[in-house]
Amino acid sequence: MKKNLRKLGIYALVIMALSSCKKDSIEDIYVAGNYEDGYFVTNEGNFGTGNGSISFVDEYGFIDNDVFASVNSFALGDVVQSMSIINDHAYILVNNSSKIEVASIDSMISVATINVSQPRYMAKVSDEKAYVTDWGINGVQVIDLATNTISSTIACGTGPEGIKVANGFAYVCNVGGWGLDRTVSVINTSNDAVETTLIVGDKPNSVEIDANGAVWVLTGGYTEYDADWNIVSETAGNLVKIVGNAIEATYTFPIGNHPEDLIINDAGQPSRRSNY
Amino acid sequence: MKQILAYILLFLGLSVNSLAQTAMDTIRLPEVKLEHNRLQTHSIGTHLVILTPELIGESSSQKLSDCLVNNSSVYIKQYGALATPTFRGTSSSHTLVLWNGIPLNSIANGLLDFSITPVQGFEKIAIVHGGDASVFGSGAMGGSIHLNSIPDFKNQKEIKLTSEQGSYGLLSQGISLKHSTDKLAFNLSLTTLSDENSFTYTNTTQRGHPTVVNDYGKIESKSGKLNLAYKYDSTTKFAVAYWSSANDREVPQNMTTPFSDAKQYDKTNNLFLSATHFFTDGVITLKRAFLEEDFRYTEHLKNIDSQYLTNSNITDVDVKINKGGFLYNLGGNFTKQSVINNNYRDSRQLEKQSAIFSSVQYNYDFLSMNTVLRKQWQTTFSVPLIPSLAFSADITKQLSIRFKFNRNFRSPTFNDRFWVGAGANGNPDLTPEDAWSKEFGFDINAPYFKFKANAYNLDISDMILWQQVDNGSWMPNNIKQVWSRGLETSVKVHTKNLSIIGNYAFTKSTNEIATDPLDISVGKQLRYVPLHKGGVAFIVKESDFTFIVNQNYTGEVITSHGALENKTLPYFILTDIAIAYSPAFIPVSIEGKVKNLMDKSYTTYQNYPNPGKGAILLIRITLIQEKNYY
Question: Most buried residue, B51, B129, B228, B489, by CB count within 10 Å?
């Protein structure tokens, strides 16, 4: 089992493999069949061109590009946002093509296409169900994993982004989409209903669960500009600890420091990956 | 107000000073052909192709992009709602488009969209392959396209109505009025175009490759052109041209996306005024132009609403003096440009530029030589001296050779420098792109046979490239270096009833330096530049009928470079046919066209479909026609 490969190392490899494509996210995966002992890389592609793709890097570092299109005779689509492995299937979220491609993980042969609006990230709830955050509906699409169809939707805040499931709940970061939001929607996964909405700070973008089951949310902070693009106001980013669906602690970053993409190490200790 | 006054005074001054000499539009002196037209004057050593009204055609819906595809080796890239021309392996912003000598490219983004530019209303279209920046300024790097709308004093009257209907929801109506005497020439052309673009195509990017209808791509376009020329006396003439257009478009996305709500609205208003005065040994031309572009792009699903309003105020003066076998040409240009853009730093940007160029031309027997030097001043960056040296020689009556060596430049656009937002930032420190060009060619002009061949070498440095920088946003820098070289040929054979016109271009355009440590495109052909492109047209005239078959070949293009192999779009051959019936006994002509006769599925830009086979029926009624050429 090759779990949690070094993410930044992968990042560099991806760029080497496909300089024209911008990497968007990496899922740590172990795979069997044709694509075993390695990892997948999602290549976002050039926006508006429809040339997003998936690469596979094996344990020796050999790169197999376009692994989806090469076996499926149709294009993966425009802006490959993220990919999740659930129940031996790859769920590839293609943002600007408004779809999720479902492919067998060992062969990459497509088994279904799920039409959505502007999918961002996916989280497995159970063997039967998963959630997908979708900017286009300002909510979560509930995916029936048996039929690979949408069974229902759950309204959240504006621009639902990062999502993680733990303790019988899903934590959805409402980043604000093209605007501003400052909340996390906490969804009870047994009845697909929003249990509570927590105000965590401007533009929450990512969430992780630590080794003790505590939920950590990273907010980026918001910058407001006037018509001439001068900064009118700026708020700080926060790292927020949630325990028992309530905010237990908030750690604030300096103003101007806009953290995003929270990751967690094998020991379950969170760290932020980037500033911009 | 001061400007207007100065302008009136200048015009008055010119007309007062018009005390008759022996002069005309073109004075043919023993050594030098004196033309007030700057393009003609500086055509020595230039690979120039002129499209006459016959070649331009008189279809009101015919787009400039189609006209160029059918009549030249210019490569037109079509994607979404845009069609932009490229020359010699450069990009669309390296093509300068001029209207009566005035640059038309958007000052915001450097482009001009040919998919909504109708050809009706132009008297002449000239295509210059290769750079001409020493004479025409920024942007004329790969080539330039000259649209001339000023009518000649030909003594004719004409009222013409055209109506067109075609496949996929094309409907177009046009009226054109022409009236000219030996004193006054006038033409008015009004065109409306509505095109649903509702063609069907096989969507190869979707599961099962379904056949789908392109249901989002409607274009509504209105265009009006009014041109007036007045000959005050044998030495002085004035011209006024006004061109207004309004276009509303649905902008389709690539075929991997299920829907689009993108819309584009463009309005342009262009006014041109000129005065030309011939004196004993020369000619002076003063031009004023006011250009306005009002642009809006919306995509509500993505929260995009981008608008800009550009204004250009151009004054151009040109003096030519012919003395002792030498032609001296001195030109000056003063331009004020402003852009208001909701995505710009400080929302409004204003800029002034002034330029002078001087040229000495010498014609001796069979040899002609032209030297030009240009200096331009810009408020925010410096432009190097731009020289040009050209020769042509008539070896025999039918064979001439030419050579041109020049420097060219392209100024960064307003977007390049002042854009802010949507994850991108302009770079106010950009400098102009720099290019050195060498070309050599020959022409054969026999009675029934014309042949043109040209080889060129173009080195571009400091080319502007938008790149992702460390903080994830995009920014342009002067870092790219491109080497373009190639061959252009054209041939025309004509007999009494048959004309065969062919062209071929070989273009090798490569990236010369790595723009980042992971750049794998060094030494490789640039994206979207076909190595081979060519076309052939057969035109047969038989009594009242004309038959035209036109075939065009576009070679494979690279869409993205790979470490092992590149991704490409395949070559394609398109065939168009047309039959026109123009009986002598009634003033009505009917033309039927089939475009893409073989129903080829092709793309010029990755994942953007094009129409298959389609028909167009054109009916033209001439209400009045009198021609009396002197």
Answer: B129
Quote the pTM value. Answer: 0.84
Q: What share of chain A is helix, strand, coil (3-state, %, to 5)?
A: 10, 50, 45
A27 or B143, which is more confident: B143
Q: Which residues pair with residue B545 across a beta bridge?
A: B542, B581
Q: Is B346 in Cβ contact with A229 (below 8 Å)?
A: yes
* Confidence class for position B61, pLDDT limits 50, 70, 90: low
Q: A276 and chain B: CB distance < 8 Å anywhere?
A: yes
Give Cα A203 to chain centroid, integer Å. Answer: 15
Bridge pairing between strands A99-104 and A110-115: antiparallel
The owner of tokens 């991704």 is: B567
Q: Give whole-number Cα distances, A275 to A254, B393, B586, in Å.
A: 11, 64, 75
Half-sphere exposure of A241 (CA within 13 A, CB side): 13
Three-state DSSP class for residue B217: coil
What single-letter amino acid sits at B323? K
**In DSSP terms, which residues pair with B363 in a beta bridge?**
B368
What confidence tens digit (pLDDT) does each residue in B355-372 have? 999 999 998 888 999 999
Q: Which residues of B touch A228 (CB under 8 A)?
A: 345-347
φ/ψ of B16, rounded to 5, equals: -65, -35
Q: Is the pLDDT of residue A247 over 60?
A: yes
Strands of the sheet containing B95-99, edge to edge, are B47-51, B124-129, B143-148, B95-99, B102-103
Q: Which of A20, A46, A228 sits opposite B561 (nearest CB)?
A: A20
What is the pLDDT, as a whole number, of residue B628?
A: 53
In whole angstroms, what is the distance from residue B540 CA to residue B451 CA?
20
Q: How high is the mean pLDDT of chain B? A: 86
Asked whether the beta carbons of A165 and A126 are under 8 A apart, the reply is no
Closest Cβ–Cβ partner in B342, B468, B607 for A50: B607
Taking an 8 Å cut-off on Cβ atoms, the answer to whether B258 and A16 are in contact is: no
| Contact check, Cβ <8 Å, B256/A78 | yes
How confident is the model at residue B55, as a pLDDT?
Answer: 66
**What percentage of chain B carries pLDDT values higher than 90?**
57
B471 vs A18, A78, A276: nearest CB: A276
pLDDT at B516 over 70: yes
Half-sphere exposure of B150 (CA within 13 A, CB side): 24
